[in-house]
């Protein structure tokens, strides 16, 4: 088929102009006689690509100068282990606010190193809402407070930055970074895998307040040390050059499209369209998340009759819409609509959902 | 320019048919309406790509069934930390044989966790030879013995597998895996970044004897645990799908070209050609490595007059040969001639070197 509207949760759809440029450049990058994926990361070509990507990301996300930016391997999950190793002393208290599957998974990376306090837990409520800030049991001596800005499986998103006082706030922004303006200065550390809003899988971004890097941390190999990575310009060992390059192309595309302010508008319209179809379906479709905590990025929904699931997915695919099957943890359907998902794709899905209901309601 | 002969040490040249296929498939993989880099790693499309890549690698490198294969992020360097965490108890003795820059760098990843014994060290000799096996000071109680099969900077390569008795042998094969037949059963663990002989940067391969995974290891996050990665089919978190896919295409290409036996013949011819030019240059070119330890993969060489270096590189580039500048650690020149470097490229370089000598000798 031609290009479908791809609602995958990550790896996710990429901007078509970016893919087209990467395709054109794949055999010979800018006339140097080789692909960017074949060139030394230490050569002038890739060094420029890398520096430009950082500059563009800084502009896109408005990253203050007193924050360092790292481009690393290992995805968001590896960073969850590294933040314990780099910013806590052995056995130190850390506070985790858990509002979905990924916040819960993060605990596994930290428990071997820290005294983990789950300060708030949405699981008893089925991860359908964010526990009220007044219920959080924060520790005054915590090394940091961690939360997940957007939960891709449960479709739960923070729409405000929580106030946690003087303790540095760490946040997993894998699935919502650059989707709207963000006051980075409120955070100690922001991190995310690139494969949702920032580009391809295989590279993760860490944005960290420089003074935190002075913490001694725990015994660790050089390759697990953020200071060493910063000193080595994220090239302590060979970085994933193609993935970094492709992320850089996505940053340029987002800037050219109008930056995070423009994507905030588009994303609000896109999410609004789908929630509207769901909420006006008279129960044919259902989203269980409290309205105030609904995600703009990932919209899980269920058909009132699960026996229609297979037909829904099949007909959607016939209509050029793929990857709508929900995550195995939750079942049902899920539409992931990051920056690169065009409004036309969401409009097509909304139309299809109404039509499917009419035929099967 | 059109495609040059690219002698980069890694990231390195890729087989042109592989790049061409990746280019053709970049916008739409096998008619599914999306790029492979946009599809879920858990979907049937990528699961098949991943399984096929493992099957092809097993066939290519003749990996016995009692060895597990992992496809991971973090490059070879991350594996150097993970092998300490997974296969040693805290502070346990490990033996390292150091024959070049990368073997030395590996120590930094292990020292925080282990009692490192440098059993043999080529550095006093300028890393120009491999210390004789009879001089190695191995420890009977070591968790493993580690060496670097091929040193990309110093151009030093083991041409036999050292006998270390009952202690498991671990080896960094980043730059020579699949370049010739290998008896995997002699090893406890083989690992390497893919960016030299196996494909693109951003994915590393670990081949490990399954019984070793029963060792308790040291306290570690789940994402640093090989057992967890194996249980999760190397998809504990989102894997670098495009890199894995491209490596898979390279495996298929190598099998179609005749497998490791054929590449062993080609690589011997290629290296022979360059060493021949150097050794018959009457000192115009120089390689300092003891003949028995010379690398088939990376050939560092020096011009007798370093003031000619810039002209050599410039004229080489004009003749369609790039990335010949030596690593900053050693200076001079370096020709990296992995599997994907065609014999025509090495012939062109040999001709150019003779010609350059004639004009400047």
From TrEMBL, chains A, B:
<dbReference type="InterPro" id="IPR015424">
    <property type="entry name" value="PyrdxlP-dep_Trfase"/>
</dbReference>
<feature type="binding site">
    <location>
        <position position="195"/>
    </location>
    <ligand>
        <name>pyridoxal 5'-phosphate</name>
    </ligand>
</feature>
<feature type="binding site">
    <location>
        <position position="42"/>
    </location>
    <ligand>
        <name>L-glutamate</name>
    </ligand>
</feature>
<comment type="pathway">
    <text>Cofactor biosynthesis; pyridoxine 5'-phosphate biosynthesis; pyridoxine 5'-phosphate from D-erythrose 4-phosphate: step 3/5.</text>
</comment>
<keyword id="KW-0808">Transferase</keyword>
<dbReference type="InterPro" id="IPR000192">
    <property type="entry name" value="Aminotrans_V_dom"/>
</dbReference>
<dbReference type="Pfam" id="PF00266">
    <property type="entry name" value="Aminotran_5"/>
</dbReference>
<dbReference type="InterPro" id="IPR022278">
    <property type="entry name" value="Pser_aminoTfrase"/>
</dbReference>
<feature type="binding site">
    <location>
        <begin position="237"/>
        <end position="238"/>
    </location>
    <ligand>
        <name>pyridoxal 5'-phosphate</name>
    </ligand>
</feature>
<keyword id="KW-0718">Serine biosynthesis</keyword>
<comment type="subunit">
    <text>Homodimer.</text>
</comment>
<feature type="binding site">
    <location>
        <position position="172"/>
    </location>
    <ligand>
        <name>pyridoxal 5'-phosphate</name>
    </ligand>
</feature>
<feature type="domain" description="Aminotransferase class V">
    <location>
        <begin position="5"/>
        <end position="349"/>
    </location>
</feature>
<feature type="binding site">
    <location>
        <begin position="76"/>
        <end position="77"/>
    </location>
    <ligand>
        <name>pyridoxal 5'-phosphate</name>
    </ligand>
</feature>
<keyword id="KW-0664">Pyridoxine biosynthesis</keyword>
<feature type="binding site">
    <location>
        <position position="152"/>
    </location>
    <ligand>
        <name>pyridoxal 5'-phosphate</name>
    </ligand>
</feature>
<protein>
    <recommendedName>
        <fullName>Phosphoserine aminotransferase</fullName>
        <ecNumber>2.6.1.52</ecNumber>
    </recommendedName>
</protein>
<comment type="function">
    <text>Catalyzes the reversible conversion of 3-phosphohydroxypyruvate to phosphoserine and of 3-hydroxy-2-oxo-4-phosphonooxybutanoate to phosphohydroxythreonine.</text>
</comment>
<feature type="modified residue" description="N6-(pyridoxal phosphate)lysine">
    <location>
        <position position="196"/>
    </location>
</feature>
<keyword id="KW-0032">Aminotransferase</keyword>
<dbReference type="InterPro" id="IPR015421">
    <property type="entry name" value="PyrdxlP-dep_Trfase_major"/>
</dbReference>
<keyword id="KW-0028">Amino-acid biosynthesis</keyword>
<feature type="binding site">
    <location>
        <position position="102"/>
    </location>
    <ligand>
        <name>pyridoxal 5'-phosphate</name>
    </ligand>
</feature>
<comment type="similarity">
    <text>Belongs to the class-V pyridoxal-phosphate-dependent aminotransferase family. SerC subfamily.</text>
</comment>
<dbReference type="InterPro" id="IPR020578">
    <property type="entry name" value="Aminotrans_V_PyrdxlP_BS"/>
</dbReference>
<keyword id="KW-0963">Cytoplasm</keyword>
<keyword id="KW-0663">Pyridoxal phosphate</keyword>
<dbReference type="GO" id="GO:0004648">
    <property type="term" value="F:O-phospho-L-serine:2-oxoglutarate aminotransferase activity"/>
</dbReference>
<dbReference type="InterPro" id="IPR015422">
    <property type="entry name" value="PyrdxlP-dep_Trfase_small"/>
</dbReference>
<comment type="pathway">
    <text>Amino-acid biosynthesis; L-serine biosynthesis; L-serine from 3-phospho-D-glycerate: step 2/3.</text>
</comment>
């Amino acid at each position: 088929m031609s290009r479908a509207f791809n609602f995958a949760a990550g790896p996710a759809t990429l901007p078509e102009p970016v893919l087209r440029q990467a395709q054109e450049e794949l055999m010979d990058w800018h006339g140097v006689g080789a692909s960017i994926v074949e060139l030394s990361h230490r050569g002038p070509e890739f060094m420029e690509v890398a520096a430009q990507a950082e500059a563009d990301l800084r502009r896109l996300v408005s990253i203050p100068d007193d924050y360092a930016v790292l481009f690393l391997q290992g995805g968001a999950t590896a960073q969850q282990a590294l933040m314990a190793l780099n910013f806590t002393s052995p056995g130190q208290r850390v506070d985790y606010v858990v509002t979905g599957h990924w916040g819960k998974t993060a605990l596994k990376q930290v428990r071997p190193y820290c005294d983990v306090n789950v300060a708030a837990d949405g699981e008893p409520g089925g991860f359908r809402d964010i526990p009220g800030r007044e219920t959080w049991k924060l520790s005054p001596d915590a090394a940091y407070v961690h939360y997940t800005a957007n939960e891709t499986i449960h479709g739960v998103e923070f729409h405000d930055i929580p106030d946690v006082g003087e303790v540095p706030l760490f946040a997993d922004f894998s699935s919502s970074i650059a989707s709207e303006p963000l006051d980075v200065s409120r955070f100690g550390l922001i991190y995310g895998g690139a494969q949702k809003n920032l580009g391809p899988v295989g590279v993760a971004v860490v944005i960290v307040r420089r003074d935190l890097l002075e913490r001694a941390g725990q015994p660790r190999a050089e390759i697990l040390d953020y200071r060493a990575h910063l000193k080595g310009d994220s090239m302590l060992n060979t970085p994933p050059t193609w993935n970094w390059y492709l992320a850089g192309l996505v940053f340029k595309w987002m800037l050219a499209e109008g930056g995070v302010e423009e994507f905030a508008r588009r994303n609000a319209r896109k999410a609004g369209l789908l929630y509207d179809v769901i909420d006006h379906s008279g129960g044919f479709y259902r989203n269980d998340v409290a309205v105030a905590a609904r995600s703009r990025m990932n919209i899980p929904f269920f058909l009132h009759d699960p026996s229609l699931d297979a037909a829904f997915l099949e007909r959607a695919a016939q209509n050029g819409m793929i990857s709508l099957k929900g995550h195995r943890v939750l079942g049902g359907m899920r539409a992931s609509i990051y920056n690169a998902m065009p409004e036309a794709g969401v409009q097509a899905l909304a139309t299809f959902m109404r039509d499917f209901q009419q035929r099967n309601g």
